[in-house]
Amino acid sequence: MRIAILDDYQNVATALADFEGLAAELKAELTVFNEHLGHEDSEVCAALASFDVIVAMRERTPFPASRFALLPNLKLLVTTGRRNGSIDLAAAAAHGVVVSHTGYVPTDAVEHTWALILAAARRLDVELFSSDSPRAEASAWQSTFGMGLAGKTLGIYGLGNLGSRVAKVGLAFGMRVIAYSQNLTKARATEFGVELVSEAELFATSDIVSVHLKLSERSTGVIGAKQLAWMRPEAILVNTSRSKIVQTDALVQALENEQLYLAALDVFDIEPLPAKDRLLAARGVIATPHIGYVTIEQFEMFYRDSVADIRAWAKGSPIRVLS
Fold this sequence. Notes:
- The chain is of the alpha/beta class.
- Helix content is 35%, strand content 15%.
- The protein has helices spanning 13-16, 19-26, 41-48, 65-68, 89-94, 107-121, 124-127, 161-172, 186-191, 199-205, 225-230, 248-256, 278-281, 296-314; strands at residues 2-5, 29-32, 53-56, 76-79, 98-101, 153-157, 176-180, 195-196, 208-211, 236-239, 262-265, 285-287.
- It is globular.
């Protein structure tokens, strides 16, 4: 048996969980990939064709139908987290591949959403400096104005598990919190002390819009030129959910045309983000490399549960199976 751990960028998998003990127990060969394997099916599948078990780190390496067809030895795919929109579950089933998941702590993503909101509101992308940064020069001292949050309007696009948690923090800051999604009811909004509004009002009246939809066929590209045109030129868009919910072309154009002040982003159409990506070249972008879930506590759970998933599958009783 051959086991692969993918995209262990921090090189911590074997330190946080006993993968080596598991490999010895199962008489398996363990390989850890610390770098991204690429975006093309040919290069990814050439590296992984001989593996029986693969542990994927979130959506860093997608598994569409085209990849399952090129991985004839694959029998178990473990995805960290409770769901993974980049895995074609129907294709996995058609190729006889079991897909198991791990636990997930939602508070990490909520905390990072607020890290981005605060960074954007206080322009930390400009004002933050360290001892080896040119910001330490006296001429760079206090060059912008921040925006206070108390009394401002926070718009939550999607008041689910994450959106409702983000809303609570907004209320604690003394913000007016409004929300919209296609299926959101007034009763649910009221439950969280939030005001239900129309889509147009959400974008037109919010000082900050934070996106918290699940990626689906219906939500893909749901935020485009029309919605961004409703925003005020001093407003901020925050997306820690999934990049494809927001149309990238429309976002870049809106930023360049100064239809909105800033976009604070943790998710991108292509990851890792190419060095010359158009988003990085656009004005008004604050970006982090999809680290909303990257905490030591989260990764300990991811890898510990991955070991348990592999062991259970090897014994003939798979656990936490996605279907």
